[in-house]
TrEMBL record:
This is TetR/AcrR family transcriptional regulator. It holds the Pfam family TetR_C_43. The keyword Transmembrane does not apply. It comes from the Bacteria. PANTHER family: HTH-TYPE TRANSCRIPTIONAL REGULATOR BETI, HTH-TYPE TRANSCRIPTIONAL REGULATOR RUTR. Gene3D superfamilies: Tetracycline Repressor, domain 2. Residues 34-53 bind DNA. Residues 12-71 form the HTH tetR-type domain. SUPFAM superfamilies: Homeodomain-like, Tetracyclin repressor-like, C-terminal domain. It comes from Paroceanicella profunda. One of its GO terms (molecular function) is transcription cis-regulatory region binding.
Length: 197
């Protein structure tokens, strides 16, 4: 990812207005609100909005970047000297909790994380690092990918949003997944009563 050139003062002002409007309207009405509505709320033309943010995912990523930076910094601090699997589980829980701030955001999470904003890059990098650490310490199966983590975070976020799962249920749902990716001795994988062989 290359650094963008600095914006002119008027362009920066328009960008700031768009992001402020997007934050307000996404919090109030959800992430699926029309781009036209965001532009109207910001007091700019739709062409100006699309020049700055060509897709909805670009706008969501920019509006959410600071939150994702905070998630990444928090998880890096938590990871110092902590159990790798517990930290990975905490990362997933935090990703879900932050994804449900904007109603309707969960469906776009995978695309948003690939947009290259500082927050998306930081959150993805720390998630990959936590996963690699848990795998290198023999706690998590080596066939698990970061894309798997995003898929699970998306599914749990959608359950919270659409099925009315309370926030207190996030840890339980994340736990179901992390229990399934733990490396276990072969004898612990056998079903009760299964014949040895």
């Amino acid at each position: 990812m290359t650094d963008d050139p600095p914006l002119r003062a008027d362009a920066q002002q328009n960008r700031d207005k768009i992001l402020a409007a997007a934050e307000a309207i996404f919090l109030e009405r959800g992430a699926t609100v029309s781009m036209n509505e965001v532009a109207r709320h910001a007091g700019v033309g739709i062409g100006t909005l699309y020049r700055r943010f060509p897709t909805r995912e670009d706008l969501l990523a920019a509006a959410y970047s600071a939150r994702f930076v905070a998630v990444a910094e928090d998880m890096r601090l938590r990871a110092e000297g902590a159990d790798a699997l517990s930290t990975l589980r905490a990362y997933l829980e935090e990703l879900v909790r932050h994804t449900t701030v904007y109603r309707g955001f969960a469906a776009s999470l995978g695309i948003v994380l690939k947009t290259g904003t500082p927050g998306c890059v930081a959150t993805s990098q720390v998630g990959q690092q936590l996963l690699q650490t848990a795998q290198s310490t023999g706690q998590v199966r080596v066939d698990i990918t970061f894309a798997d983590l995003v898929c699970v975070a998306t599914a749990v976020s959608l359950a919270v949003e659409q099925d009315g799962i309370p926030q207190s249920g996030v840890a339980h749902l994340v736990g179901l997944f992390t229990d399934g990716i733990v490396v276990r001795p072969p004898e612990r994988n056998r079903l009760p009563g299964a014949a040895s062989g």
